[in-house]
Amino acid sequence: MSQRPLFFRVLFLALGLIFIGRLFYLQVYRHDLKLSARNNVVRQERIYPGRGLIYDRDGRLLVGNQSAYDLMEIPHQI
User: Using only C-alpha atoms, what is the Rg of the chain?
Assistant: First the structure.
C-alpha cells in the first residue's frame, strides 16, 4: 500500500482542523470583531429616487417632474 494517499488524507484533515479551530477562535473568543462587524453592517442612508417624465404614445407629456411643497398648520402648535 502506498503512503501517498494516507499522507494526503492526514494533510487535508489537519488543514480542516486548523480552519475549524481558527473559525471557532474568531467567532467565540474575539468579541471586538463582533462589535466591529455590527458597526460595519448597519448604516442607514436615505436615498430619494429621481422621478422621470411620463409620455403618452403620441409623445405628449402626461406627468412632469416639478417639485411641489405642502404647507400645513397644526392649531395647537401655533
Answer: 31
Would you say residue 71 lies in a domain? Answer: no
SS (H, E, C) 50-74: CCCCEECCCCCEEECCCCCCCCCCC
Domain that residue 9 falls in: 1-38
CA–CA separation, 20 and 10 (whole Å):
15
pTM for this model (two decimals): 0.41
Q: How far apart are the first and last CA of the chain?
A: 94
* pLDDT tens sequence across 14-51: 999 999 999 998 888 887 877 777 777 777 788 877 77
Whether 60 is in a domain gets the answer: no
Cβ atoms of 52 and 65 within 8 Å: the answer is yes
